[in-house]
Amino acid sequence: MTGRLHLNLFIQSRGHHEASWRHPNASKLALTDIRYTAEMAKKAEARLFDSIFLADVLGLWNDVEKTPFNWLEPITTLAALAMATSRIGLIATASTTYTEPYNLARYFSSLDHISRGRIGWNIVTTWSPQAGSSFGGIGQVSHADRYERAEEYMTVVKGLWDSWADDAVLDDRDGGHYADPKRVRSVNHEGAHYKVKGPLNLPRSPQGRPVFVQAGSSDAGRQFAAHHAEAVFTAHLEKATARTFYADLKVLLADFGRNPDGVLILPGFSPIIGSTEAEARRYADALNELADPEIGRQRLSLRFGGHDFSHLPLDKKLTPADFPDPGTVEAARSRTEVIVGFVRQEQPTLRQLLAKLAGARGHFTFEGTPEQVADLMEQWIAEGAADGFNLMPPVLPEMLDVFIAEVVPILRRRGLFRTAYEGETLRSHFGLARPSVQAL
Ligand SMILES: Cc1cc2nc3c(=O)[nH]c(=O)nc-3n(C[C@H](O)[C@H](O)[C@H](O)COP(=O)(O)O)c2cc1C
Predict the structure, then answer these.
(1) Per residue in 320-370, pLDDT tens?
(2) Which of 93, 221, 398, 410 is in the most buried spot, having the most CB atoms within 10 Å?
C-alpha cells in the first residue's frame, strides 16, 4: 500500500545543525568519504524513503575555519550512489546560472540511464555571491535576471531531453541500423542567453528526463515552480507560513493549467527526537552549546547579500527594521522573507534568532518524542501545509537512526507511509507520470 506522505532525506555535512560536525555521535567518517553518503542513502532506502537529496553552493564560504560547509560535488556523487543503491530516488542540485544547458542535459540524462530512472534535478538559480566570483567572469547575476535566464534554460534542456524519440534506438545489428535519424531532431534554439543546436548525444533516458525539483520560494521562484516543478522544497520556521505557501502555490499551479495535486510540496523538517521532551531539549541545548553565534552572524549576512549585522548586540530584541527589505535582497530572497517574518512574529533576540537558524538554516526545527514528531507530520499533511517532508536530521547518522527506528513505524501504523516500493523510478515514488516526447 502506498501511504499519503512522501519522505526525502536531505544529506548534508554530519547533519543539518551548524555544529553537527563536532557532535560526539556524528559519523566518524570524513565528509569526503563516499561511504558516508552511501551509508545514509542505503539506510533511507531500507526504510523506503522516496529519495535522497544533495545541495550545492558553488563556492567556499568564508567560515571554513569553523564549519565544513562544503562537500562532494553532487552530480558525480549521484553516479556513485546510483551504484550503491537500487530503488531509492536520487536528487542533485545544479545551477541554471552557472552551468551550460547542454552539459547539464547530458549529465542528468546520463545519470538517469546509470540509475535506471531514479534521478531528480533540484533546479536552482544560485544565490550565493561566491559562485558569481568564480564562473566565467559574469559576476553575481541579479535575482530577476537569474530567473529570466532560468526560463530560457528550461526551454533548452526540455528540448534536448526531447530530441530523441523513445524508439529512436533500433540497435538492429543484422540490418546495420543503430538509430532511426528521423526519430532524432535538433533543437535549433536561439534566444537572449543561449544558442543551442542539439540534438543531445544520448538517447532518451528511462524517465524521459529527470524529475524537476525546485527550491526557490520568492515570487519569481513560485512562478518558476508553478511553471516547471514536479516537487518543491521549501523552508519555513512556522507552520502558518508553510500553509500559506502551500495554498498559494497550489492556486498558482491551477493558474498555469497544471494539476495542483500533481506537484509535491516538501518543507524542510529537522526533528530532535528524545524518549521524553526533556531529553530532546537537553540534546538540543548541548548542540547549541557547540555552535558559535559569530559564525551564525556571518551566515545571516551572507543570506542578506552581505548586509552588515556586526553592530547588533547579541542580546538585543530584534525588529524587522534591523534587516534590509527582503524585496531588495539579491541573494537568498525567500529565506530572508522567512527570517524577517519570524522576527516580526516572535521578536527574538539576535542570539535566539541565530540559535534558531543554527538548527537548520531557516527550516522548521522541533524537539519532542517520536509520537509528537509523528503527530506534527500528520497535522501538517492534514492541515494543508505539506505533501511530505524534506527530512533534515540535525545529527547524522544518529537522528536519522532514531527517526527510522521510532517515527517511521508510527507513520506506518497510521497508514501514512508506504510499506513497499511500488515502482522502480523516482517518478513512480512521487506518483508522477512519465512525460511524453512532444511530437517528432
Ligand atoms: C531545501 C532547499 C534546498 C536548497 N538547496 C540549494 C542549493 O543546493 N543551492 C542553492 O544555490 N540554493 C539552494 N536553495 C535555495 C533556493 O533554491 C534559492 O536559490 C534561494 O532561496 C533563492 O531563491 P528565491 O529568491 O526564489 O528564494 C535551497 C532551498 C531549499 C528550500
Answers:
(1) 999 999 999 988 889 999 999 999 999 999 999 999 999 999 999 999 999
(2) 221
Which residue out of 16, 252, 333, 335 has the highest number of ligand 1 atoms within 8 Å of its CB and is therefore the one to mutate?
A: 335
**Contact in structure between 120 and 51 (CB atoms under 8 Å):** yes
Phi, psi of 242 (to 5 degrees): -65, -40
Closest-CA residue, ligand 1 atom 16, reads: 216
Establish whether residue 218 lines the binding site of ligand 1, counting it when its CB lies within 6 angstroms of any ligand atom. Answer: yes
- State in Å, rounded, how far the first CA of the chain is from the last one: 37
How many whole angstroms separate alpha carbon 396 and alpha carbon 36?
10
Identify the three-state secondary structure at position 415: coil
Q: How many A from CA of 237 to the centre of ligand 1?
A: 15
Q: How many angstroms is it from 159 CA to the middle of ligand 1?
A: 25
Report residue 418's pLDDT band, with 50, 70 and 90 as the boundaries.
very high
In ligand 1, the atom with minimum distance to the C-alpha of 215 is: 17
Q: Whose CA is nearest to atom 28 of ligand 1?
A: 215
User: Rounded to an integer, what distance in angstroms lies between the CA atom of residue 373 and that of residue 76?
Assistant: 34
Is residue 3 scored above 90 in pLDDT?
no
pLDDT tens digits, one per residue of 230-269: 999 999 999 999 999 999 999 999 999 999 999 999 999 9
- Cβ of 332 closer than 6 Å to ligand 1, yes or no, is yes
Alpha-carbon distance 225 to 283, whole Å?
36
Does residue 14 carry a pLDDT above 50? yes
0.85 cut: is pTM over it?
yes
Burial 331-342 (b: 16+ CB within 10 A, else e): bbbbbbbbbbbb
